[in-house]
Amino acid sequence: MKQQATPYLSFDGQATEALGYYSEVFEGEVVEKQTFGEADFPTPPEAENRILHSRFKKGELVFMVSDTFPGQPVTEGGHVALVLELASEVEIMTLYDRLKEKGTVLMELQDTFWDAKYAKIKDPFGVTWDLNFSKENR
How much is the average pLDDT of 107-118? Predict the structure, then answer.
């Protein structure tokens, strides 16, 4: 693994508001932000301005924030995932296979439009893991 797990906070349309709040509270900044409308895939009009992905940073504090796609509600208390940035295709495939053995696959391991291999799995204890391997690391 390339680094510590990164918390990923999910919201149902409140990501922009949450990012503003966290910017004030922690006096940090949003260093990345993309809406669903800016992404390279079909998006319904009601999702255009929702946050697909963002990264917040203040010193060593780093976390990611996004909105869910319309119709995918967020359960309070279940809206935090841990992101693992992996160092190789072998590593992502190994962890994916191990986690899916007893876990629930929320998103199959696949190539993505952000030039990475990615999967999302909920483990048997209810923890959601986002596995990401950026192809630029090949």
Answer: 94
